[in-house]
Q: What sequence folds into this?
């Protein structure tokens, strides 16, 4: 059996969205599951849309997602270079080989102004397809610019097999004599990717379904060159769900759709990668949902892929990210959330991390959840009303007054000491725990739901701030 080799071949024309990431991930997982090689190749021949820092961004994204190429621009390899703009002589040689064998021809029609026959042959009317050798030589001698076009069969059909979709057949009459080499010497995608996949010994091509209609052109090129076909796997698209319930191809209108956009929103790279792996693939005979990268590699197989579109579900990603948070140590979560917890000293930062890591779905939830610790919301007497504990603003003031006196006497503001103080006050007052805790927590936070209870908030705020808030609430309730 030949060695399994897959590739991820992005164009540096933008940043990696979820569909790109999933393609790279599946190619990586399949290669690694089979003991094969995963290649990163940069297809940068579309110079008009080239983005200067996109290659670096792509490489950073793959590194963050733990998708590590065996060969690529920085890794090197026996098929280097792995950047298409550095392989121009190869494409020129291969295009000329097709011209010599009669499977391609020089077209002197003026690029985009090439004559068309409506929809016939995909647009171009094949004006230069049958120029005589003398006409070709005359045009070359006059220095006329030209492109090299693929000479498609005029009759019959082209069929190829796809792992997910079975045999796919397209009539050759629907195939345009596509440009292989542009007048500036740059290859088109449909030519360069075939040449590179063959020369780099790619065995399995994993890409999106949008390339299905182009694949017959690629198959014919393999045939013209006499090369062995790789195995094709065309992945169903990733869809997004709008607020009205409608489903369409995932785009920015559905929310963050780029890997780094999701990280900026507070999702962990490993959680994103885990979730993306399940967008169109499921492990056989297993209900497991949380995977390490090694576990994904061990479980991955092509027969687990679905040919139906997958819907990106932010609620499911929230759940999965939350599971990763829960599995972290307090220290690791504090490190991950350090940008959001910078206002707290180290002990309080780690303690707050212990409260938050089981309560947030993403790191960007933290500011809203902890805002009251920095700035107390406006006073609202009605918050002190609690029917379950039979509390009114007036009753709350009666509880706060003696509680404040006990806390003012505290020399030790540690959690254990605060718990002991509050417990002693509850026992001495003869009141239920909830009846005491409600007015204290409202006075300290001015909100009904908080991460942690009264003693946790007292500890996080510190003695001075805690007593100021409690006394201000008591004064407001009395007036």
A:
């Amino acid at each position: 059996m030949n060695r399994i080799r897959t590739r991820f071949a992005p164009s540096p024309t933008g940043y990696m969205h979820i569909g790109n990431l999933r393609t790279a991930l599946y190619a990586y997982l399949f290669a690694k599951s089979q003991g094969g090689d995963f290649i990163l190749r940069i297809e940068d021949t579309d110079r008009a849309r080239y983005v200067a820092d996109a290659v670096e961004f792509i490489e950073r994204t793959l590194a963050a997602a733990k998708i590590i190429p065996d060969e690529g621009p920085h890794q090197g390899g026996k098929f280097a270079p792995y950047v298409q703009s550095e392989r121009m002589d190869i494409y020129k040689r291969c295009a000329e080989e097709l011209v010599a064998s009669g499977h391609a021809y020089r077209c002197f029609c003026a690029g985009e102004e090439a004559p068309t026959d409506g929809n016939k042959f995909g647009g171009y009317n094949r004006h230069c397809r049958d120029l005589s050798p003398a006409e070709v030589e005359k045009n070359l001698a006059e220095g006329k610019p030209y492109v090299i076009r693929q000479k498609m069969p005029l009759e019959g059909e082209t069929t190829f097999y796809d792992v997910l979709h079975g045999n796919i057949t397209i009539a050759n009459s629907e195939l345009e004599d596509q440009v292989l080499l542009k007048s500036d010497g740059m290859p088109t995608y449909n030519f360069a990717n075939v040449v590179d996949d063959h020369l780099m010994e790619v065995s399995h091509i994993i890409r999106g379904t949008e390339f299905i209609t182009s694949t017959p052109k690629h198959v014919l090129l393999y045939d013209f060159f006499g090369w062995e076909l790789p195995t094709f796997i065309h992945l169903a698209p990733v869809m997004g769900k709008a607020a009205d319930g409608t489903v369409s191809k995932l785009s920015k209108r559905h929310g963050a759709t780029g890997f780094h956009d999701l990280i900026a929103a507070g999702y962990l790279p490993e959680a994103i990668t885990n979730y993306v792996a399940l967008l169109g693939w499921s492990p056989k005979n297993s209900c497991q949902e949380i995977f390490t990268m090694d576990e994904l590699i061990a479980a991955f197989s092509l027969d687990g892929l679905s040919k139906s579109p997958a819907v990106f579900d932010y609620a499911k990603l929230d759940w999965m990210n939350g599971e990763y948070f829960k599995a972290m140590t307090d220290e690791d979560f504090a490190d991950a959330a350090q940008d959001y917890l910078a206002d707290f000293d180290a002990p309080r930062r780690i303690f707050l991390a212990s409260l938050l890591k089981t309560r947030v779905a993403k790191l960007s939830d933290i500011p809203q959840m902890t805002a009251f610790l920095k700035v107390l919301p406006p006073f609202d007497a009605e918050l002190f009303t609690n029917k379950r504990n039979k509390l009114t603003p007036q009753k709350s003031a009666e509880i706060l007054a003696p509680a404040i006196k006990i806390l003012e006497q505290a020399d030790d503001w540690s959690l254990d000491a605060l718990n002991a103080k509050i417990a002693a006050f509850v026992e001495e007052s003869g009141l239920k725990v909830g009846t005491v805790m409600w007015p204290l927590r409202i006075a300290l936070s001015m909100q009904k739901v908080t991460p942690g209870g009264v003693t946790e908030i007292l500890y996080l705020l510190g003695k001075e701030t805690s007593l100021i808030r409690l006394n201000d609430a008591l004064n407001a309730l009395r007036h």
